[in-house]
Design a protein that fits this description.
Number of strands: 3
Structural class: alpha+beta
Strand order of the largest sheet: 1-2-3
Number of helices: 4
Helix content: 40-55%
Radius of gyration: 13 Å
Strand content: 15-25%
Oligomer: single chain
Length: 98
């Protein structure tokens, strides 16, 4: 996301922890999909798979958990290819949690 896009995106968000992408397209998996985009898995997770010790990541994870508790789907999208795969599977109604 460019600096200009990030500034505009921030002004539209209610919380800095709210996911980057929202797809309001109902499927058998849910009514909406929320994706928090990161460059790579290493930015989010340690080698053992645990979430990194970054307060912002923990805020984002808490927001994702709230969305999940409300019945929505929420995911990390690590890199372009993974994020595209998540979106494609959602639109084609073949989405599965990982």
């Amino acid at each position: 996301m460019s600096i200009g896009q990030a500034v505009k995106h921030k002004s539209l968000q209610q919380s800095r922890a709210f996911p980057d992408i929202t797809i309001f397209y109902p499927t058998t998996a849910g009514h909406a999909l929320f994706i928090e985009i990161k460059r790579s898995k290493d930015e989010v997770f340690k080698k053992d798979g645990a979430l990194r010790e970054d307060p912002h990541l923990w805020e984002q994870k808490a927001m994702m958990n709230k969305l999940i508790d409300l019945g929505y789907c929420a995911r990390w999208g690590c890199g372009f290819d993974e994020t595209k795969e998540i979106i494609d599977s959602w639109i084609m109604d073949k989405y599965t949690e990982r």
